[in-house]
Amino acid sequence: MNTLSELKAGKLAGAKHLQLVEQLSEFPTDIFKLADTLEVLDLSNNNLSDLPDEFACLHRLKRVFLSFNQFKHIPSVLAKCPALIMVAFKGNQISEFAPNSLPKNIEWLILTDNNLHELPDDFGNYTQLKKLALAGNNLKKLPISMANCTSLELVRLSANNLTKLDDWLLELPKLAWLAFAGNDFNKAQCLTKSTLKNTPLENFQLKKVIGQGASGVIHLAKAEHNNVAVKLFKGAITSDGYPLDEVNCCLQAANHANLIKVLSYIEQSEQLGLVMELIDTNYTNLGLPPSLETCTRDTFNDGCNYSIEAVYKIAKQMANTLTHLHTNKVSHGDIYAHNTMINEHYDVLFGDFGAATNLAMLSEYQQQQIQLIEVRAFGCLIEDLLSTVSAAVKQDELFGKMSDIATRSTNSVIASRPSFKALSTLLNELV
Q1: How far apart are the C-alpha atoms of 223 and 203, rounded to whole Å?
Q2: DSSP E strand stretches across 108-201
Q3: Residues 190, 272: contact at Cβ < 8 Å?
Q4: Beta bridge partners of 217
Q5: 162 Cβ contact partners less than 8 Å away, ≥ 6 residues apart
Q6: Does the annotation list 421 as a binding residue?
Q7: Of the candidates 127, 132, 173, which has an alpha carbon nearest to the alpha carbon of residue 156?
Q8: Could you give the angle at which helices 397-409 and 364-386 cross, rounded to 10 degrees?
Q9: What are the pLDDT digits (tens) for 282-296?
Q10: Which fold does the domain 201-270 belong to in CATH?
Q11: pLDDT tens for residues 93-146?
Q12: Any alpha helices (H) in 277-332, and if so which ranges?
């Protein structure tokens, strides 16, 4: 993090990245001295409400973070920034999104937790958009022009006021990660009926925090006879939606050998939670989340090198798990290596239902389309894993077969993709 005094003193000359958190209510014009070098500007967690017309002089700026400020509109000057491909306005008060407010080449737009009632009719002009986060607004419908956003890969629409899901959205050729729980047509009012018990929080002794995500905090906890993992939800809208929808999808998913086992749930007046089986410490994350550069695709530690046999075993388990989920009418919404855990034998544990959605209220066609959208995510996962395989193995027959499965799963012609059941059969017969 930088300081305003450093900026004013010229100590940041030549900087490519600038972050200021200083309760700013006015845009610091000294930032314009960095116009020839600045690529990433982070002014989140301030009190800004507008940008000056001179902002467009930042001609090298690629990414701007303005989350948790006081914006009520999207400044139209952003459209004049020639290199800008990412804009983040999470947690503002934005209700006005005028036409032509953003550059046509934008790839990543974050508007989570604002007050948007509609998107501009010209939204379809943003044809390069890959990642779109709109959870926690008041959208009742999406503009039909959005069907032209054929580069979209990840879309978050949870916790809005949508009255239906448009078929054209489910027909976008590159869409792979979709979340839409908690809208008017599918908002959960109470917990799903379950054979699991509602266990009081006081039954557990919380020992330490072992994990934290957008929706809640995971604690190592002592139960009556053993240790468990207790996830306590924050009770607010997250980047993926409402905690109640996440809990319901976990309960609806039921048990499977490759899903993190849910033992009971916690439902009290001011606390919602899940009690889960403690994961063996031998398990580690299969991958790392996407970076600013990869946008929608996972990353891996330097030197990560999976064997083709490991990729095959992981893929077979994942296809089987996802068949189970869709049989139970649950879409995961976040099929990624970073949400998948493996041990030294490449046994899989899959979790994190923050972006999951109950599909039961949708038509058969829409359920099928959403499954094929998730098949694309599965194909991307296989592609990402195959990228870690050593070059010497890439001539092997199994590598070729796995590459073919990834290609078929990511086919831009959605109807040509196999179902998860077909993929499971195919993988079981592969060797």
Answers
A1: 7
A2: 108-110, 131-133, 154-156, 177-179
A3: no
A4: 212, 232
A5: 139, 140, 141, 142, 180, 183, 184, 185
A6: no
A7: 132
A8: 140
A9: 999 999 999 999 999
A10: Phosphorylase Kinase; domain 1 (3.30.200)
A11: 999 999 999 999 999 999 999 999 999 999 999 999 999 999 999 999 999 999
A12: 308-327
